[in-house]
Amino acid sequence: MGMASEEAVKQLRTLMEDVEDESLRESYRNIHQGYPTETLLRFLKARDFNVLKAHKMLLDCLEWRSQNEIDNILTKPIVPVELYRGIRDSQLVGLSGYSKEGLPVIAIGVGLSTYDKASVHYYVQSHIQMNEYRDRVVLPSATKKQGRPICTCLKILDMSGLKLSALSQIKLMTTITTIDDLNYPEKTETYYIVNVPYIFSACWKTIKPLLQERTKKKIQVLKGCGKDELLKVMDYESLPHFCRREGSGSGRHISNGTEDNCFSLDHSFHQELYSYVKQQALVKGPSSAPIRHGSVHVRFPEPATEGTKIFDTLESEFQKLGCDQKV
Known about the structure:
CRAL/TRIO_N_dom_sf, CRAL/TRIO_N_dom, CRAL-TRIO domain-containing protein, alpha/beta
């Protein structure tokens, strides 16, 4: 960290010390998990080291967390389990392992996620719960194991099966991206994009110029399933199932069973996450009280971020490709 960065962190830390609301202070502790400097740096990076803008962004994040009870979201399991299984089968996300440097590897099945088994609110709730579990459980555990702060992750985006029909999911993806941009900034070290079909290649040329230089440097579009390149940064055991051989795709079930499929509810990561949330619900509430059904309704922030521009452009390009195919 250079001198300019150190000074910016110092100024932002001083501003945060003036926060008097105890609920906001508690939320801030949940965010930084004992590593406030790294957290302040993330918000500063997201606002190009403009201290006042980073301060406003962080305060807005704390207010959003307070208003939507995000600090308690890990006490609200999605029940019944059949509903949660449907969400896992249609919102393809999971933890496949760790990089050689100890960073969690998050796999995302962009192309085959359908988001058609539950309401938007359930999918948003599930996404935020995975964010919070990552930040409060997975990253602290990795930090302890590595003996140094682990505050970011790697993401592998599988584009297998991406079709023009994905246009119907743009609004939900924009909502999720906006939540991440505004409240979980700079949590991803590198994005690896694999199994790229023509439809993505056609859109990428238009999308890339919209990205900030900082974001461009994080994105690597790999050849095929990306196995050879990914093995430079992680062991074979940490590769998502869709990267283990050419043409495997991001199918929900593979020949070795769902235990190897990090998207499946039967995978150890999702089993641990779901058990953790149910246990926290019991700790939070009286033992005799039944776990409450129904989704958590989180206020969706106004989409005005870099991610929103990308999805708007993606929507436009999908529409063009759709028109071209009809001609």
